[in-house]
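re the bet — no i am not wrong, look at it urself. input seq straight from the record:
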Amino acid sequence: MPIPLPDLDDKTFDELVEEARASIPQLYPGWTDHNPSDPGITLLELFAWLTEIVVYRVGRIPDSSHAAFLKLLAGKTVAPGTGESMADVTRTTLAGVRERYRAVTIDDYEYLVANEWPKTTAAASTPAITRVKCIPEQNLVGADKLAAAPGFVSLLLVAEEGDGDLPWVQPSNSLKSELAAFFEPRRLITTRLSITGPDYVSLAISATIYLKDYAVANIVKETVAEALANYYHPATGGDDGQGWPFGGDIILAKIYAILEDIRGVDYTEDVTVTAEDVTREVKDGGELLSIRLEGHELPRIETSSITLTMMARRGEEWKAV
C-alpha cells in the first residue's frame, strides 16, 4: 500500500506566532518583553506571515515538475491531452511502468515474445511464433554453438511458417530482423542478441510390434507411426501438447510406453533410435538408453523414418505380417 504523504501546510498565522513566542524562554531567557510593540515580536510576526503565505507551496508540485518526473519514468515527454488532467497522465504512466518492457532476464525475453510481440504491427506481417526459448551466454549463430559467449542472448524460435519442411522450419529472415528491431530499445545496451531456429536432429526409430488377436496390422502400424511423430512434434508434441522440450532427450523407455498404450498392441520389443552422430547415444553396459540432445536442439522424426515390424500370432507362433 502507498505511504501516506504528510500534510506540511497545517499551521495558521496565530499558531506559528504562538509556537515561536513559546520557544523564546528556552532559547533566549533574557528576552522578557513579548508585547506586540517589541521589535523582536514584530519580526516573529513578519516571519510567521511570510511562512503562512508560502507554506502552501510545500505540498504542491507544479505541472511542469510533475511532467519532468513522469518523463523520467516513461522515457519520453508526456503531457495531458484534450480532456485529460495531469492526474490522468500520471495514472497512465504508472500503469505503463508496471507493464513489462525491458528485456533483462530469460523470462523477460520469452514473455515479451509470447505476449507483447503479437500486439505489434510487424507481427501481423510475419509468420506467427508458436514457441520461443531463450538461452543466455551462447551465440547460436556462431561457429561453436556450445562455447561460452558472455554478453550474448540467443532466442530460438519455432514459427508456423518459414524456411524448410513443415513443421521443422527455420524462422524467415524478415521475422528475425523484425524481432531484432522489436528488442533493440528493450535489451540491455551490453547484450548482444542472436535470433535463430533450433537445430533439428534427424532420428530414425525401429521397433517390433506384437499385435493382439483382433488388431489390423496396417491400421496399428499407421497409428503407431503417427503417435511417435506427433509426440516428438516441435510445436504440438510432448506430454503437455506444447511441443517437445528444447534439448529433451529421446528416452527409449518412453517410446516403449507410447507404443504399448496404443490399442491393438500386445507388447513391443527391439526399440532402437538411431542418430547420425553416435556420440549422442547414452548406453548402460552396451544397452541403448536414450539419445542426447543439446539445449538448442529438437528431434526431427518423420513417419517415413519409422520402421515397424508387425508380428501377429499364427497358431502357437508369431509371424511377421
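see?? The chain has three domains: 13-98, 106-196, 200-320. told u. also Residues 106-196 form one domain. so pay up
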